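Why run this: before we spend reagent on co-expression, it is cheaper to look at a predicted model of the complex and decide which construct boundaries make sense. The entries below are exactly what would go into the expression plan.
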Amino acid sequence: MKYNFKAIEGKWQKRWEDGKIFRAVDGSDKPKFYGLVEFPYPSGAGMHVGHIKAYSSIEVVSRKRRMEGYNVLFPIGFDAFGLPTENYAIKTKTHPRIITDRNIEKFSNQLKRVGFSFDWERVVDTTDEDFYKWTQWIFLKMFEKGLVYRDKAWVNYCPSCKVVLSNEDSQGGKCDICHSDVIQKSKDVWYLRITQYADKLLQGLDTVDYPENIKQQQVNWIGKSTGAFVDFAVDGIEDKLEIYTTRPDTLFGVTFMVIAPEHPLIDKYADKIKNMDAIQAYRAECNKKTEFERTQLVKDKTGVKLEGLEGINPVNGKKIPIFIADYVMMGYGTGAIMAVPAHDQRDYDFAKAFGIDIIQVIKGGNIEEEAYTGDGEMINSGFLNGYTNKKDSIARMIGELEKLGIGKGGVQYKMKDWAFNRQRYWGEPIPIVHCPHCGDVAVPYEELPLRLPKIENFEPGQEGESPLAKIDSFVNCKCPKCGRDAKRETDTMPQWAGSSWYYLRYIDPHNETCLADADKMNYWMPVDWYNGGMEHVTRHMIYSRFWHHFLYDLGVVNTPEPYAKRSAQGLILGPDGEKMSKSKGNVIDPLDIVEEYGADTLRTYVLFMGDYGVATPWNDSSTKGCKRFLERVAALTDRLTDEPASPEFESKLHKTIRKVSSDIEDMKFNTAIASLMTLLNDIYAVGSINKENLVIFIKLLCPFAPHLCEEIWETLGGEGFLSLAEWPRYDEAKTVDATKEIGVQVNGKLRSTIVIPTDAGKEQVLAIAKEDAKVKAMMEGKTIVKEIYVPNKIVNIVVK
RNA sequence: GCGGAAGUGGCGGAAUUGGCAGACGCGCAGGCUUCAGGUGCCUGUGGUCGUUAAGAUCGUGUGGGUUCAAGUCCCAUCUUCCGCACCA
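The model came back. Tokens follow.
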């Protein structure tokens, strides 16, 4: 058969779609498999090769599972709210709805042309009001349970996008979307109390099958530390200055304190501070720096001493100076620290710069040179003297502080509450009404969805307020509680909202009475295998795990964790080895590949190109190599024979079944395909193949190159769809060969190879080895010191 | 700085976890087919020495070590990539 992919691919895509053969069945008796891939943002640019690679893994696993008799849910949808669409809407004066629908259609067609076996009857779109109704519902449930609060806060604000960003969206002081510098601005912010779930999110990691590096990233992100809160009295004022420390054991070594420039104590006691001018000047200086700069300048500590206020070390009553310095952040701990220069490098640098005393309280290191952070015997530390174990001294100190009522043990998280509102049009409206009499009131559940009003102008206001604020008919409403005039919240939710629960909606996408039917969720959840990008391992995954834990506590879902297993694909780099980008002109368009080589070649190549989890450059010649492979497979129909296969070939075939089956489970797609290539070479070497064995071959190849394999199946007179045929099983007995070639070493160096009967005894194998001419020559005139035989692997004869 | 991963031919990468390094693919070279280009098919392809050959010898970032045997384990060291980062 000649390989005419253009004719084949459209034909089978149509048959699959018409036959609805990839439809997931609710409540089937079969075992279930829920495979999930991160749904795409339908950008105008269309699909990227990265999408193909990301989806191909679960695609192959899902296809294999179907053939193994599973009831498979492999859905797709669109994460369609977001800034790029809105910005494009502003630019082209087109409604985001129109743009989104257009892009979704384009994406769908592209995905279909690659032949992915998605269940197209379960497509979800986060911007569909039937979907975001339930996003709003979950928000209101959180509001009801006290997990939502509003606060005035200094927020990360992108002056270009005119939008408030979470810490997660403004990493490194740059806007995640447009990469402009982020500035600090005072705003009304809605927060979700994700910190309340920090411990559950940490503990949940012990119950899921994620790779270690992914777990570690999530652990780091949550950033739990244990330590103590300690109150320091300040000379001359009533208020205490509370600090957080992970090293309360070093309290006797405290020689100064540092507070963040924004610390409220400063303004409150401005009249007591004698050098307010200098303080204000320093603050102004800090304000100019972005958070990025502030966290970059590790060296050259700067700061100003507060003249007129002095702290008192609670354990020894010593008076110590207080500084403001920008290396202390208001956003972590209490915004104030006790400084122990002898045992903390930052404090040490600061003390050296400002000529402050350094008191060593733990023996060890050389504090003339640098801070000593290791363990050792406690000295100069009153009741802690003589302690050598950090753990013990910390426990003793916390006990002492608690007895005195000036401190207590506590934990801190790097993770902050999730800033949840955006001043944008193209997002889920936050279903809250501001009533002058009742305060913030939830929109009643029965009024959901709170629809986005149809408007013409999507530009944000001058001060960055939401475009919705200009729509009087939307803003003005009655308070659901008291019925008097009230105003609607005009901010919308961030892009992460819809993706925090979308995998549940796939289970029951058209349900009008709840987010998904409980029985169906009991059947399908948890997601058995979720693949996506490393860039979503912290934000998206932590947010959605948070929402899922919340829904579990609410009794809506039956599992605490949404994803049983997670994997991540490596990037596809440009042919030049650089990250693909428009500006570098090294972008590969998957549709060009489909046009030129066909979808099966594209699918095969993205999995063959290298280790799935590792970034690999695109190589057009190698793509051709995959095409050549498929052409040679197609030509097998011209090499059919009625002859039974030789035992040697049967053995190779069954080993290949075993290898492909296990490699797919281990995501070693490259070696799975390589073993099929090897088998194909073997078939060509033999010259022919019988029908029975060819069917096994195309079944193994089917998850990778389904169009071609279906076509061959049809040519061979197969009934129905190969995609639904039974996955081949290997016969263990047939994978065992009668003889085996093994290496023979003399003194650890390979000198020859011999053929032995499989599982022959040591004596027999050694006898064969010693008969070998080359081995004989090497042993000539020497005495044997040691003989080693590793069954079916190697012989090593040590001679002197 | 902390945490994680990785360094293997001209290139992408294999190596059943301590047992014949370089599977498979690309590229390259030679040959056949072809008017020719391309495609296809066959053969070869880690380095060095060796007239071909037989063979020898070196070889998995670098330097040591353990072992009959090391890409794989241990110690030291260099490099690259990816997270996190004045987190108290």
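The first helix of chain A runs from residue 5 to 19. The radius of gyration of chain A is 33 Å. Bring this page to Monday's planning discussion.
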